[in-house]
Amino acid sequence: MVNLTSPFPKAPKNLRKMLNLRIVTRALLFALAIFGVIFILLLIALIGVLGKETQLAEPMPAKAILTVNFDEPIAERKGDEWLYGFSDTPSMTFYELIKAINVAATDNRVKAIAGEINVSSLGLAQIEELRDTIKYFRSQGKKAYIYSTGMGVLGGGTSEYYLAAAFDEIWMQPNTEIGITGINIEVPFLRDTLNKIGITPEFYARHEYKNAMASLIDNKLSPQYKSEMTKLGGTIFLQFVSDVSKDRKMQPKELIELINRAPIRAEDGLNNKLVDIVAFKNEFNDELKARNKGAEFYPIHSYLNLLSDNQGKVPTIAFLVLEGEIVEGEAGQDMWQQGVVSSRQTVKQLKEIAKLPNLKGVVLRINSPGGSYTASAEIWNAINTLKKKKDVPVVVSMGDYAASGGYFVALAGDYILAEPLSVTGSIGVLGGKLVLENLWKKINVHWAELQFGKNSGILSGNRKFSPSEKAAFNRSLDNVYRDFTSQVEKARKISDKELDKLARGRIWQGTAAAKFKLVDEIGGLNTAFYKVRELAKLPKGQKYKIAEFPRPKTLSEKINELINGTPQISAGKILQNSGLPWQKLQLLHRLQYDAVLLPFEIVM
User: Fold this and answer.
1) Is residue 402 classed exposed, middle or buried when 0-12, 13-18 and 19+ CB atoms within 10 A define those classes?
2) What tens digit of pLDDT does each residue of 478-531 get?
3) C-alpha distances out from residue 383 to 152, 188, 242, 596, Å
4) Which has the closest alpha carbon to 409: 369, 437, 449, 438?
5) SS3 state at 385
6) Is 80 exceeded by the pLDDT of residue 86?
């Protein structure tokens, strides 16, 4: 037997040898596993690089029909994760997609576009800009066709059809459905669940329309929350009906009747002017080739790789994308912080932009519901510093969201653009904590507290705010709200009386925001680049190059990252591909921030 009289007993001699052998064996296996992982990752990276080389070498036919699958993920910016882009289809950003279609519109080799859409992840503002871009392509005397094997599943295909309606012809597979069931807005409420488990939310907001914490505080829509959601959904619905009825040459009343009957079989859609042709995909392909004799299908990814920006001593316009919740410090530190706007990283990127030779302007693309007010202010200050240091204009292009902290960042722009359905505003602030006092009682956990300072326990989750802490916390919210509104008044030249009607947490969509001077004009990326050239006073016809930020890491940087640390693999992407309700989890994640848009999900 082993002698256990010592607090750290020695194992018998033979046992020590066996343990040593096991330790050495495990160490060797562990080392081999690490080298194996490194080898596999390097091999993946090498294959990715070689794959891109192959794409670059793929020749373009003399006559081409560009193919675009709108179901593929089209992010606002490229990711830096190790596994980003290693798929059967090369990654493409929204900016790259718009650029490729714009160039193709005046390329004599491109005869038409053949799109495909079934269930897409494109946002409403992105769809609006794509609709305009497709119509520009058509205005150059070219045709755009789109094919679908079914828009949505038992509904939920309204946004897909919204994009499809901008094309010359809509083709659908037989016995499929058009899911134009309209607009549905869902809001999660957790208050009753929190009560059951003994968690008490204690949050305060500035002001009554700042409802981001309503999911925790209430168990139903408040009148203010309901009015905001009704305004939002109603605006989207009316915009859809107005645009699509014009596209399909029908009366709005006809379209609304079809929406109320949906989902609609493709064959019935054909009889009601929703669809132009019902046929299988091979028939679609054959017909397009017959109409464009001698033309070959050519993927838009390959076409994009043929495009090159102007080089040499020409003016530079920087293009910086800020997408996701705004957080302090570095991003990517945990599974939730994938696809966020890090204040520290954004400040670094703005410093890199300041070093660009012959910099003449910046286009800032914001697709963010907000986040940390401190981080938003840090980015806002860095943009203003860049403007003063380099004396260059900054034009803001809003994506689906540029609200709350996202709107605060936009205030640093010299000119702000939004799509008609971009969600903006939400000028307000909130904060608080989840109190676990009753939960601890349920599970018999007792906390002792020693305070050195009257408000030292202000952030404790073990009890509610004391009267002194509550007063201090609300003073802080008042200070932030005062700063937020004063910056809006200065930047947008709105009186405090008028701003009070627009702020208090209210949300606005692009068209209304332009009417009330929260933004300058309705438009997308194309308009933004035109405006920045105008503000930079570049001569008409002047060539320029675009420097995209954030820059994806190079292969050598990723290898260095692997050697010196752990490769960043997006947990968000893994969960998104797992089939779990990742988007709904992200909605709840918003609740931790102090200047963020209220959580809701629009289903179209």
Assistant:
1) buried
2) 899 999 999 999 999 999 999 999 999 999 999 999 999 999 999 999 999 999
3) 41, 35, 38, 20
4) 369
5) helix
6) no
Candidates 130, 85, 490, 472; CA nearest to 305 is: 85
User: How many Å apart are CA 592 and CA 230, to the nearest integer?
Assistant: 25
CA distances from 481 to 210, 269, 428, 434, 476 (A): 11, 50, 6, 22, 9
Residue 220 token pair = 């139903």
Residue 6 Cα to chain centre, angstroms: 60
Beta bridge partners of 370: 596
Distance CA 361, CA 393 (A): 5
Q: Which two tokens stand for residue 586?
A: 């992200």
Extract the tokens encoding 320. Answer: 């910086």
Quote the tokens at residue 29.
């296996």
* Contact present, 60 and 109 (Cβ < 8 Å): yes
Diameter over CA atoms, the chain: 93
Q: How many residues does the chain have?
A: 604
The pLDDT, as a whole number, for residue 307 is 87
What token pair was written down for 7? Answer: 């607090």
Look up residue 564 and give its amino acid: N
> Is the Cβ–Cβ distance between 62 and 294 less than 8 Å?
yes
- To 5 degrees, how large is the angle CA 513–CA 516–CA 517? 80
Residue listed under structure tokens 């653009």: 417
Strand pairing class (184-186; 601-603)? antiparallel
Q: Is the pTM of this model over 0.70?
A: yes
Positive or negative torsion for Cα 353, 521, 405, 468 = positive
Q: Are 327 and 340 in contact (CB under 8 A)?
A: yes
Determine whether 414 is exposed, middle or buried from the number of CB atoms within 10 Å of its CB (0-12, 13-18, 19+): middle
* Cα 349 to chain centroid, rounded: 19
Q: What is the mean pLDDT of residues 121-137?
A: 95
As a whole number of angstroms, the distance between CA 322 and CA 405 comes to 12
The DSSP secondary structure of 403-425, one letter per residue, reads ETHHHHHHTTSSEEEE-TT-EEE
* pLDDT tens readout for residues 265-274: 999 999 999 9
State the pLDDT at residue 294. Answer: 92
Identify whether the C-beta of residue 163 lies closer than 8 Å to the C-beta of residue 120: yes
Give the rounded distance of the alpha carbon of 289 from its chain centre.
36
